Amino acid sequence: DAKTTQPPSMDCAEGRAANLPCNHSTISGNEYVYWYRQIHSQGPQYIIHGLKNNETNEMASLIITEDRKSSTLILPHATLRDTAVYYCIVRPNNYGQNFVFGPGTRLSVLP
Amino acid sequence: ETGVTQSPTHLIKTRGQQVTLRCSSQSGHNTVSWYQQALGQGPQFIFQYYREEENGRGNFPPRFSGLQFPNYSSELNVNALELDDSALYLCASSLVGTELYEQYFGPGTRLTVT
């Protein structure tokens, strides 16, 4: 079973920041938080991951709380192309560990 | 887009038949994982191959089997197809031996069993 909890759906206005929350209260010390997204009928796309520090790349920012029990993915200026299902996953960064996907959050970016 | 490719794109089979799906991993990656994604659900892990051996398996019956070749490409074989096997099958490649283990997914093969 997935170790994360996400809202099933969210809306965001185009051009605004999209903030997608994720709860992972049972996360272990060696587990990373990964975010993927899946645009309709395509394979999941890697977005970002982190352990305990906040991370930023060209796609998004990841904010992890100090106790690591929750995190937020931030898309700073959402576009219509960001409409997708967003998956938050926790997993150890070890050899042989697969990704356990939950149902994710369906983000709709509205014009 | 990732460098992971899958073939075929779509496939229709009849219940009881066998199917083989193929995956070419991203250049430089040595590990391939396979996932099944039913409509409206997140991907479910089937198994992973590393150095041509199965290296972990999800809750799938033995009629789901796989191979990894020396060039790190992979096949997923499903025998005795059932209607519930209809799904999007995804492969993902990664590089074991580095600090980062993000998986890069292919576009998937849509299998329909009738």
Task: Note down, in words, how this protein is organized.
The complex is a heterodimer of chains A (111) and B (114). By secondary structure, chain A is mainly beta. Chain A is built from no helices and nine strands. In chain A, the strands form two sheets. Chain A has a five-stranded mixed β-sheet with strand order 1-9-8-3-4, with no helix packed on it. In chain A, strands 2-7-6-5 form a four-stranded antiparallel β-sheet, with no helix packed on it. The relative contact order of chain A is 0.35. Chain B has 114 residues and is mainly β. Chain B has strands spanning 5-7, 10-13, 19-24, 31-37, 44-50, 53-57, 64-68, 74-78, 87-94, 104-105, 109-113. In chain B, strand 7 and strand 8 form a beta hairpin. Chain B is globular and about 40 Å long. Classes of the chains: A mainly beta (111), B mainly beta (114). Chain A binds chain B through residues 2, 34, 36, 41-46, 49, 85, 87, 93-104, and chain B through 2, 4, 33, 35, 41-45, 48, 50, 55-56, 58, 88, 90, 92, 96-97, 99-108, 110.
